[in-house]
Amino acid sequence: MDERRLVRVSKYLSKHLRHAPERIGIELDAHGWVPVDTLLAAAAAHGFPISRDELERVVAANDKWRYAIDGDRIRASQGHSVLVDLALPVTTPPALLYHGTVAGSLDAIRTEGLKPMSRHDVHLSPDRETATRVGARRGRPVVLVVDSGAMHAAGHEFRVSANGVWLAGHVPAEYIRFPG
């Protein structure tokens, strides 16, 4: 499978496993899982056939580990806008986490903190490099440092997805270190 096809399949999976399963007639269970055969049949029926081999290659080759296969089921690791409970345990975060954004978002973040927006959780990165790549998707990146240790000590809960993305319901502005 060439790189373009890999990207197209990954984006297709993201759209239907995170945001719009109903568009191809699939239903995610309470934890976001769908049988692989159901997904593949639905994709084919809606004009985007994916082979089992392609699916497994996309899951294995995705540098962000966006998808997980467990036996005969698949799900997105995080980032859902549809209601799912990923059943991730509450976990003690490292002292610092990072969030990539762009300069145009800073005023709102200074007043409201980091909010999940259309997702269920705020996504935080374990390192500055990952946060930089995330922020760069929308323009020139700005990396914010989150005092996750202090947040945790104050009672805020954190979870970590299978692909290492840290999740929090909200990050109040007082726990964010802004550049400059």
Task: Describe the 3D structure.
By secondary structure, the protein is α+β, with helices and mostly antiparallel strands. It has 2 domains: 74 residues, RNA 2'-phosphotransferase, Tpt1/KptA family, N-terminal domain (Arc Repressor Mutant, subunit A); 81 residues, ADP-ribosylation fold (Alpha-Beta Barrel). 33% of the residues lie in helices and 18% in strands. The chain has 6 helices and 9 strands. The strands form 3 sheets. The protein has a 3-stranded antiparallel β-sheet. It has a 3-stranded antiparallel β-sheet with strand order 4-6-9. A 3-stranded antiparallel β-sheet has the order 5-8-7, with no helix packed on it. A hairpin with a 2-residue loop joins strand 2 and strand 3. Helix 1 crosses helix 3. The chain is elongated, with a radius of gyration of 17 Å. The N and C termini lie far apart (44 Å).
Beta-strand percent range: 15-25%
What is Rg?
A: 17 Å
Shape, principal axes of CA atoms: elongated
Instruction: Using the coordinates shown, work out and report the CATH topology of the largest domain.
Output: ADP-ribosylation fold
What sequence of helices (H) and strands (E) makes up the elements?
A: HEHHEEEHEHEHEEE
Largest sheet, strands/sense/barrel = 3 strands, antiparallel
Oligomer: single chain
Strand order of the largest sheet: 1-3-2
What's the CATH architecture of the largest domain? Alpha-Beta Barrel
Low-confidence stretches: none
Q: Between the first and last Cα atoms, what is the distance in angstroms?
A: 44 Å
Using brief descriptors, characterize the structure shown.
single chain, 180 residues, alpha+beta, Arc Repressor Mutant, subunit A, ADP-ribosylation fold, three-stranded antiparallel sheet, 6 helices, 18% strand, RNA_2'-PTrans_N, NAD, EC 2.7.1.-, tRNA 2'-phosphotransferase activity, RNA_2'-PTrans_KptA
